[in-house]
Amino acid sequence: MSIEQNQKVQGYLNSVCSHIKWTEVHxxxxxxxxxxxxxxVSEYVAEGISEQEAIEMAINRMGDSVDLGKKxxxxxxxxxxxxxxxxxxxxxxxxxxxLYSVEMQGLLMGDISVSIFPKGVIYFFxxxxxxxxxxxxxxxxxxxxxxxxxxxxxxxxxMLLAFGTTIVNGKPYLNLGFININxxxxxxxxxxxALAGIFFNKDWxxxxxxxxxxxxxxxxxxxxxxxxxxSAAIIxxxxxxxxxxxxGVTKRQLLGVxxxxxxxxxxxxxQEPYRVARMLAFINxxxxxxxxxxxxxxxxxxxxxxxxxxxxxxxxxxxxxxxTDLIFPYIVYTFGWVAGAVVIMLSVALIVIMTSVVTQxxxxxxxxxxxxxxxxxxxxxxxxxxxxxxxxxxxGISLPFLSYGGSQTLINMAMMGMVLSVYRRKxxxxxxxxxxxxx
Length: 439
Hints:
- The protein is mainly alpha-helical.
- The chain has 2 domains: 3-77, no CATH class; 82-424, no CATH class.
- Helix content is 66%, strand content 3%.
- The protein is built from 18 helices and 3 strands.
- The protein has helices spanning 7-17, 26-46, 51-62, 65-75, 82-105, 116-136, 146-163, 183-199, 211-226, 230-246, 251-270, 273-280, 294-304, 327-335, 337-360, 364-388, 406-424, 431-435, and strands spanning 166-168, 171-175, 180-182.
- A 3-stranded antiparallel sheet has the order 1-2-3.
- Strand 1 (166-168) and strand 2 form a beta hairpin.
């Protein structure tokens, strides 16, 4: 009988773990304690002591199981990234205050029948529930279902396009009764989780390495183009390449995969010249100041005229979507360049902290997951701010945690919950390692 199957050893290990409340760490604790016991037994057996007696001596040497369990409980509490939570809370709080300001000034353009501030508060608390639920969920359970999640995401998308009850501007919405979820907003998150599960153990040296990456890249982009969402296609493509670079692909492999999506984008753009003109309007908006360049000019003017501390609640309302995509110019105009700098610094701090999580996680699946989700948020922050100051084309890219929107609020909170789930388990060994060292 091996040492790990010894009843006294099992009883001791179970007794120790019974005092450690975080059950997810039990396997790892047992593995570590068993290793110490085996070392002690080997030492005693080498001195001529029988194995059974050596086991008893090793257990006694480890100390009282109750005392040890209580000590290990203190040292094995799941970590919480209070920095991440604090920054998200500050950004969300600033976003809600801004929504309240916009609504009180009556600056909303279009027919918005429901007040955005109360709904924004509801979305925030719903998002908080989602964040907490995912934080306590063991993300490692998703590792084996990468391809299942990818295919499932595509199938739901296909059904929504064919039978969806709510489709706005070609974009499918998922009707959950109490809320309509923009499915396009959800897909980058779902695809990132799927890709992390598919790529974490992929062998890129095989002759047919390119088959699945090309499929995984092209199929979603076709659906994005069909759904009239080029910005989401660009985000997904960038995240895809960031993940495969993280996996260690060669430059030749990277170039080989990149040719197809570039060709697909060019083909789609050539079929819709107006889209090209609209995308390039940011280069010289004064060529069409009352048309495609209007929003750029108004946004830049609002930011330039803000001053250090802002113009107060005097915004003229000459910009659309100031509660969503163009919330940043409103914040800067109203509260000043200082407020804009604070938003940028908080955004950078959030991305830096999320990036640091990648270096702390032992599990490759977890590292890929955080890398992908960090990339999504970083692209959103960067693109949204750059487009409001005239350095990127204006598109339906919201400012994370600040812009109004039920779908985006919930998905941003879900992404943060997933990052916190990984962080919570950053010191745990991958389950595959634990299974290969069963006791």
